[in-house]
Amino acid sequence: MRELVDDSSVSDDDVVYRRADWDKIGGRTRTAPGQTAKISPNFFTDYPKEAAELHGYPDPCMSVGLHSMIQRLGYGPEVMLEEFPDYGLLMVHVGDLRQLMRGSGAPCAQGVLASPTEDEPWHGVVFDLESRPRRDPAKKAIAKVACWVIPLIG
Amino acid sequence: MTGVAAPWSAIGSTASSMRDSASWSAGGSLARTWRQRTRPPTSHTAAISSREVLPINTGSASDIQPLWVASAFVRVVELSRRPLGWDSYDARPLQASALRDFLETMISLSHAIQSEPAISLTTEGGLMASWSNASGSLDIIVDPSEDPRIIYEDGLDGSEWYGPVGASPRIEKWLWRTSALH
Q1: The pTM is what?
Q2: ipTM score of the complex?
Q3: B123 to A25: CB separation less than 8 angstroms, yes or no
C-alpha cells in the first residue's frame, strides 16, 4: 500500500488534470448545443474504497494526471484522452488544492502524490487530508477553482 | 398530461436484470408510489410559476403528473445500464439500494420540485439530482450505505448548507427556489 502523504516534490505551481464525462453532469442533453458544460463537483470524486485498495492505496483518493510529468515525457494534456473519446479534461493548480477552502470558509486542504503507473507514467492522486472519501463541500470547492482544458461541449 | 407508465415499466424491466432483484422490485413499487404522490396541488396552480411561494402538498386526487417525472425516469433507466468503470476511474454501477433510497427521497420531496433535475451517477454507484439557477444550487446525493444528503449554496450570499436530507428544516424552500425555471 502507498501511504497517502502530501508529496513535497510536487510543486504548488504544478497542475493536475482530471477526465470529465457527461454522466456526471446529467447527460449531454442538459447542456445547450454549442455551449460548454458546467464544472460539477461530481467530477472530483475519489475512487471507491475497494478500487483504491486494488490500486494500492489505503484510502479513497482521486486519480489525476500531473502536468510536470506529462510535459517531461514530451506529451500534452490531451494524451489523457487518447483512449477516451467524448470525455473532457479539467485542470486544477496544485497550490489551489493545498489551500482549498469550503464555501463556508472552513479549510479543506488536499494532498497530492505522484504515483506513476505502467499505463500512465504521469499518474498521481489527490486526497483529502482530513476526510476520506472527500466530502461534498470539498468537491464543490475544487469545482470552483477548476477550469476546462478540453471542454465538454453540448 | 404526459403519462409515466412507459418509463416506470422500463424501470421494472431493468430491475429484473439486476442482481439484487428484491431491492429493484422495491424500486418498482416505490416508482408506482411516486407516480401516485407526485401531483401538484391543483388548487395552487398559480404558485407553480413562483420562485417564492411553496405550495402546500394537499395530496388531492388528481391525475396530473409533474412534467419532469417521465424524462427523469428515462434518465435513471439509462444510467442503470452503465457498467463497472463507466467514468474511466473504476466507478461502481448503480446499486439497487441507492436507487431505492433515491426514489424514496424524491417521493418525499416531489411536491417542492418544479423542474426536472440533472440526474447523474456517483462513483460509489449512487445517484445525484441537481438544480441550479440564479437563486442558488442544490444537490441531493444518495450513495449506497449512506444517508441521503444535500448540499445547498445560496446564489445571493454564497452561504452553504451541507448535511442529511432529514436534518434540513429549509430543504423544501431551497428545492422550490432552485428548481424554479425562471
Answers
A1: 0.85
A2: 0.94
A3: no
